[in-house]
Amino acid sequence: MTEDTQARIDALVKGNDVMLFMKGTPLFPQCGFSSRAIAILDHLGVTYETVDVLQDQGVRQGIKQYSDWPTIPQLYVKGEFVGGSDIMMEMYEAGELQQLLTDQGVAKAG
């Protein structure tokens, strides 16, 4: 794990209101968990950015150390780690994810 990779991850997390590290892209998710995470974000209608960890092994390993979370996808809101797709689903179903996004002032997709 290089400091450059950690700095790059940190810049992505802090530079985007909603940042999802995933396998694949929003149009072509490469795993069911990433697909579910995208479906939740799309349903909520928020603007978000993604990073395809399959395209960058440094980020793929580095994000797990950055968050101390072993799996991908990983969702960050306003620089804070929220969780993976299971946590996103639980929060979404409970209305907590919507509330978090509202509380954080995250913009709706235009």
Tell me roughly what share of residues is in helical segments: 40-55%
Report the total helices.
Answer: 5
Percentage beta strand: 15-25%
The gross shape turns out to be: globular
InterPro entries: Glutaredoxin (IPR002109), GRX_PICOT-like (IPR033658), Monothiol_GRX (IPR014434), Monothiol_GRX-rel (IPR004480), Thioredoxin-like_sf (IPR036249)
Keywords: 2Fe-2S, Iron, Iron-sulfur, Metal-binding, Redox-active center
Family: Belongs to the glutaredoxin family. Monothiol subfamily.
Protein name: Glutaredoxin
Q: Which labels suit this protein?
A:
single chain; 110 residues; alpha+beta; Glutaredoxin; four-stranded mixed sheet; 4 strands; 50% helix; 15% strand
How would you characterize this protein structure?
This protein has 110 residues and is an alpha+beta fold. It has a single domain (3-103), classed as Glutaredoxin (3-Layer(aba) Sandwich), CATH 3.40.30.10. The protein is built from 5 helices and 4 strands; from the N terminus they run H-E-H-E-H-E-E-H-H. The chain has a 4-stranded mixed β-sheet with strand order 2-1-3-4, sandwiched between helices. The termini are far apart. The mean pLDDT is 95. Keywords: 2Fe-2S, Iron, Iron-sulfur, Metal-binding, Redox-active center. Belongs to the glutaredoxin family. Monothiol subfamily. One of its GO terms (molecular function) is 2 iron, 2 sulfur cluster binding.
